[in-house]
Amino acid sequence: MARSKRNGSSRSRSSKGRGRNGATRSRTQKSDAISLLKSDHREVEGWFAQFEKTNSDSKKQELAQKICAALTAHATIEEEIFYPAFLEATGDEDIHHEAEIEHDGAKKLIAEIEGSGPDDDYFDARVTVLSEMIKHHVKEEEQRGGMFTKARSSDMDLEALGEQLQQRKAELMGEEPSAGASRGARARPRGSLARALAARGNGRGRQDASTRRS
Length: 214
Ligand SMILES: [Fe+2]
Ligand SMILES: [Fe+2]
Fold this sequence. Notes:
Layout: H1 33-53, H2 57-90, H3 93-114, H4 123-142, H5 147-152, H6 158-172, H7 190-200
Bound molecules: fe (ii) ion (2 copies).
One fe (ii) ion binds at residues 75, 78, 99, 103, 137, 141.
C-alpha cells in the first residue's frame, strides 16, 4: 500500500490533460481504472497473507469477511464496468470470457466461505484455494499482454472508467449513497452481496450500455 508520492515536478505519465468535462487535471494515473483495480488486488493480497499467518479463529473470520466483501465488490465493478468497456474497445473475447469464468469460480468459493466459519474443517482450505485462484486471476489481468496492458494501449477512457468504478464500489461497500445513481443500484449490506451475486448466476453476455465509451 505504501506508494511513493513523488510527483513534485508535475511530470505525469500521460501528458495530455483531456478531461471529459473540459476540466484539465493532472493525470498521474493514480485514479485511473487500472490503478484502482490494481490497488484492490494489493489490498486483498495483504489480507490473504495475514490469513495465512494467523492462528486466531476470530482474526481468520474477520479477514475472510473482508476478503470476501472486497473481492465481491471488485468482481462486480469489473464485470459491470471495466470488462464490458474492455471488450468493446479491444474485441478480445478470449481474455474477456476467461476472466469472467474465473470470476464465477471465485464467487462460488466466496459464497461457501461466507456460509461457513473457522470452526468448519474446510474453512482454511477454502480460503487457501480462493487465494490461489485469485493469484492466478490477478496475474492474468496484470501480466504483459494481459487485460490491463491491452486496455492501456487501447482507446479506453481509463480516467472516466476509474470514476465510474470508484462510485460503484462505494455504493456496493455501502460507503456512501449513490451520487449519480446511474446504474440504478442500491448499496447492499456486505454479507448479502456475495449471495446476491451468486444468485445472479452465470448471466454472461450482459453489458450495460451506460458504461460503454463511444
Ligand atoms: Fe481484478
Ligand atoms: Fe477480475
